[in-house]
Amino acid sequence: MGPTTLEAPRRIRVLPDHLASMIAAGEVIERPSAVLKELVENSLDAGARHVEVELVAGGRRLVQVSDDGCGMNADDAVLCFERHATSKIATPDDLNAIQSYGFRGEALPSIAAVGRVTLQTSPDDGGIGTEVVIHGGQLRSVKEVGRTRGTMVAVRDLFFNTPARRKFLRTDGTELRHSVREMTGLALGAPVLGFRLSHGGRMLFECHPVGTWQERAQSLFGREMLLRSIELDEADSGVKLYGFLGRPGDARGGYGEQYLVVNARPVQSRLLRKAVLDGYEATIGGGKQPSFILFLHIEPSAVDVNVHPQKREVRFRDEREVYQFVRDAIRRSFAEVGAAEPDLASASLPLSADRPAPGEPGTREAHARTGVAQFWSKRFGDPAQQRTDAERVAEETPPYAAEGHEQAPPPPTASEKGSPQDGPPPFRGSNDRFPQGKKAPRRKSEGAEPQLALPLVSREEPSRAGESGDDQPGAESLLWQFQQKYIFVSTREGLWIIDQHVAHERILYEEAMSAFSGQAPASQRLLFPLTIELTPEQDAILEEVLPMLESMGFSIQRLSGRSMMVDAYPNSVHRGDDGQLIRQMIDDIAGVGFKRTGLKEQIATSYACHAAIKAGEPLSTREMRWLIERLFTTTMPYVCPHGRPVVVKIDMEEFDERFGRT
Ligand code: ADP
Ligand code: MG
């Protein structure tokens, strides 16, 4: 310990305001999106009808919020930067039922402590207003300016005076994503107001004032997403819950679009989130997240928003009651949709009904679960369900687990859209789910299949390789698919067992990585270009990764607004998926946020994982051959990008040993 500990204790001192603000700023303002949130909340409290936000460099260079609210006179324009200066509460009683977004009076001083702030404001349309400039808590100037009613606050160079905090900021793309999320939540909470958000001069979203939350949600998330969701509207004494629930089959890795709005305030409530997820019950497979947009209305005195300086957390007077109400409302809404279509009961695609699940039959839980199962299976049809099941098998079954329990998914339905069937490589038809059987009769067999000696790199011409092998007598004895999951290969040394999913993953991963280092991959035009509608958040992410996706062989065009057209896929992607692949990749990235390093690896891993053949997909001999040949041209054929084994070898000696032949 240093000598200071031996000295007489220092006297207690009240911190100078400036220092106190910097400390407070650490709690309130941790990134540009927090600036956006505080400023927009102020605009809403000021009765604005339109709020416009402009960001530069993910908000690190500039966060600017303009409104047409009540504005401030010259005195208030200076006073608002004082700590605990607020016009929103006056007495302790006011704290018990907060009706405004702000009340702590610390946002503006906190922001001013860590950025370069310019505020312009005017309380009327007289054309005269006040401009206040504060840099790092130091008042620089106060002067009269011309402006109409309303307020504009521009915050430049956030954390310019606190390098330690600046270092914690992520890439522009990630920071932007946080801002978009924040703004989306605020816009959901106030559908009757207009919002605009632009980044670097490009408009990310524009919401016109509308009458209902449904319209607002649609303008933010697109019709498509909402059509696939189920609407909920439940009320109990003093509490009301409404919104959209994403279907369980659409749940994805990373975070879905999850928004909770309590009394018009977007919140992050653990309690509510748990209630929602518990409402979904066992309908969602491991590690996946459903999307939901839920609004809770509750008497203001029954909820405390003064829990955290950022006002994100809320606490309810009766936590248990709220939890149960929300959970049960969600279960009920699933059950009701199921009950409304009783003929669904006979549908043969139960989601969770035939899975062993906790909850005895006859309980409300069991009832709800059946309802959910019925609803999803009928309403959203089979293919998605099959895919989900296949994905589940892929994810939940550890490699080489004892067989016997897995149900083989139904054979793939030939795609509605059909697909080109010509030539190699085999994984090509974008909408092709490997239609099986009924192939045109092959030309004559090419004689006995050569004894395979792995690595199984074909010596044949690619075109011949593509034609040979399939449905060939004898071929099956050397190469066959087991449980639609593993490929068995008979070799001179013994038996090789290859996990079809991870093998394809390894191939795709390496292709993506070499694409990033400049090796242009083969790309194919889609017969039916896909149109995907992105949420503002997804759009912000796509913007950042677009060049990388293009170098991988995707071709993505902006049609208008947040509508994108995907018209080419990398060649090795084996099937189309109405844009799911791109969305899943975006979701993965959204889930982790960009690290400044390793972005390429993250994208390649995500791509490989989602684009690869799943367990449960039948493969033709030709497809298996292709897979094996490609696998052994990768640098690490034995381990997948997640570190799982790709190949398990059983040598002849082991066979012999087991049979006591040695
Ligand atoms: P709080 O919102 O908790 O009151 P802030 O530091 O965010 O604290 O703002 C301080 C005060 O400045 C507010 O109470 C309000 O009177 C005034 N103010 C801030 N932003 C605006 C705005 N956009 N329009 C009008 N008044 C504003
Ligand atoms: Mg405020």
Q: What structural class do helix, strand and pairing data support?
A: alpha+beta
The biggest sheet amounts to: 8 strands, mixed
Strand order of the largest sheet: 5-4-3-6-2-1-7-8
* Average predicted confidence as pLDDT: 75
Give the ligands present: adenosine-5'-diphosphate, magnesium ion
What is the number of E strands?
A: 22
| Low-confidence runs of at least 5 consecutive residues | 1-5, 339-476
How many helical elements? 19
Amount of helix: 25-40%
Q: What Rg, in angstroms, do the CA atoms define?
A: 30 Å
Characteristics of this structure?
binds magnesium ion; eight-stranded mixed beta sheet; disordered N terminus; 19 helices; 662 residues; alpha+beta; single chain; binds adenosine-5'-diphosphate
